[in-house]
Amino acid sequence: MMAIENLQRIVPPLTEWFRAFARELPWRSDPLPYYVWISEIMLQQTRVEAVKPYYRRFIEALPDVRALADCPEEKLFKLWEGLGYYSRARNLKRAAQEMVRSFGGEIPGDYEALLSLPGIGSYTAGAIASIAFHIPVSAVDGNVLRVASRLTGSEECIDEPRVKRFWEERLTCLIRDSGTDSGLFNQAMMEVGALVCLPGGRPACGACPLAACCRAFRDGTWERIPVRRKKKARRIEERTVLLVRDAVSTLLHKREDRGLLAGLWELPNLEGSLNEGQVMEYCQKLGLKAVQIHPLPEAKHIFTHVEWHMRGFLLLVEDMQEARQSGQLEENRFLAAGTELIGERYPIPSAFRPYMDFLGLRIGSEAPALNPPAAEIIPEGRQSLSGEYRENRG
């Protein structure tokens, strides 16, 4: 399948380089199985620097498997708020509950048992097994596939499952044959891919411990290796986002339990790029009486397969109490809550960050910090229905 010559030569320079240059990361200093698991799930599709504050906050709030298994979903999502790919958080809880049922509340030190748990595939199982339990198995992610492909000059498409399986088997054999520490080797391969053998740009071959045995470096083929499938173009969706407020509350909406951002709280939003008249009409349908409407800046948010192009409106409405009492809001999955309560309890997807900023709320790892009050978004010289539009923080 692939020409692989003297692959064992990489082990000594690779592991020596890692010992000398590895980043200091909070989950590396104390690689308990639970810490390794949480960090690896968070690091999927997310940069290391972005993960650090989330990881610290998560471990402080949910220090072990049983705490995670018992965590209410809304609290879990609040801890995850801003990280995206919320199915990861759901699978964490499902896996923790299975660990409580089947493994006494402990993470199993067995590769096949790890694979049986929700949200844990071959890479994550390999990472936990090798780093936390020193089981001699590989952990092959995109970084490792890129490094391995360039080392051997392979032009096989790394998006093919058979190619990943090949490298999992080959690197597991390498680990076992060389007798090297599996956790050390796997982390070193990932670290070279993250810091040196970079994607989407010229790799830092001059700093690479493996340059002497790298075919892509020798042949100058790094630009076309690794081979990837062409990505499909994202679907563009126009959305109109509404920041609906009375004197003390902001309106939130809970998304459906399936689909994009399933089950999360959001700012109310509508399909299409609507004008003021259409927005006012929608507000009336909810039983809300708008007093003022102001346009908010346009924004864009990119999901994996969808790109939202958003325009926004701030609507100042009369007291939402009447609409709440009628049950009309609750029937349509709406909730009116004060700013401080939203910041503490309700997880809001990062797609709405540009508009949550106008509330003085930050999403995600910065969520506990509150910015200046929402009164500042009212144009100068204008007042709300209560005379002075101030948030009630009592």
> End-to-end distance, in Å?
68 Å
What is the name of the CATH class of the largest domain? Mainly Alpha
Radius of gyration: 25 Å
Question: What is the CATH architecture term of the largest domain?
Answer: Orthogonal Bundle
Count of helical regions = 18
- Number of domains as seen in the coordinates: 2
Oligomer: single chain
- The percent range for helix content is 40-55%
Q: Could you say which structural class the secondary elements and strand pairing correspond to?
A: alpha+beta
- Which band does the percent of strand residues land in? 5-15%
Instruction: Report the uncertain regions.
Output: 367-394
How would you concisely characterize the structure shown here?
The protein has about 400 residues and is of the alpha+beta class. The protein has helices spanning about 10-20, 25-30, 35-45, 50-60, 65-70, 75-80, 85-105, 110-115, 120-135, 140-150, 160-180, 180-195, 215-220, 275-285, 320-325, 330, 340-345, 355, and strands spanning about 235-245, 250-255, 265, 270, 290-300, 305-315, 335.
Task: Explain the overall architecture.
The chain has 394 residues and is an alpha+beta fold. The chain has 2 domains: 7-219, Endonuclease III, domain 1 (Orthogonal Bundle); 236-377, Alpha-Beta Complex (Nucleoside Triphosphate Pyrophosphohydrolase), CATH 3.90.79.10. It contains 18 helices and 7 strands. The protein has helices at residues 11-21, 26-29, 33-43, 48-61, 65-70, 73-80, 87-103, 111-115, 122-133, 142-152, 161-178, 182-195, 215-219, 276-285, 321-326, 328-331, 339-345, 353-356, and strands spanning 235-245, 250-254, 265-266, 269-271, 290-302, 306-317, 334-337. Strands 4-1-6-5 form a 4-stranded mixed sheet. It has a 3-stranded antiparallel sheet with strand order 3-2-7. A hairpin with a 3-residue loop joins strand 5 and strand 6 (306-317). The longest helix has 18 residues, at 161-178. It is elongated, with a radius of gyration of 25 Å. Residues 367-394 have low confidence and may be disordered.
